[in-house]
Amino acid sequence: MNDRKAATPERPRPRAAGDPVGFLFVLLPRFNMMALMAAIEPLRVANYLSGQTLYRWSFVSPDGGRAAASNGLEVDTTALPDHAGQCECVYVCASWNAEHYDNRKLFSWLRRRR
After folding, report:
1. Which domains does the chain have, with CATH numbers?
2. What is the spatial distance between Cα 64 and Cα 45, in angstroms, rounded to a whole number?
3. How confident is residue 58, by pLDDT bands cut at 50, 70 and 90?
4. Pairing of strands 65-68, 74-79
């Protein structure tokens, strides 16, 4: 008999009215910095123009630490969170040869987010 429980998908906890929408950017090695900035800049501008925090974001990687972009710039990240928190949107940022990237910890974490 198998005593293991089926993995329960992690869901973001409900966001209260007025709370900012959360974005989580998972940075893979050699991610594309231009794509990341193109995703963040509209959120930043919306916050600025509205005078309030409508959107928030954070950067994670499988083990935390610095993630190097394909252009050599580095971004500080935290390790993948154990729980979904209030991040409604998760984006995986990659670049060339991402199809060869193999990280079981990340893939398992992403499957639990479905």
Report:
1. 26-112 (3.40.50.880)
2. 27
3. very high
4. antiparallel
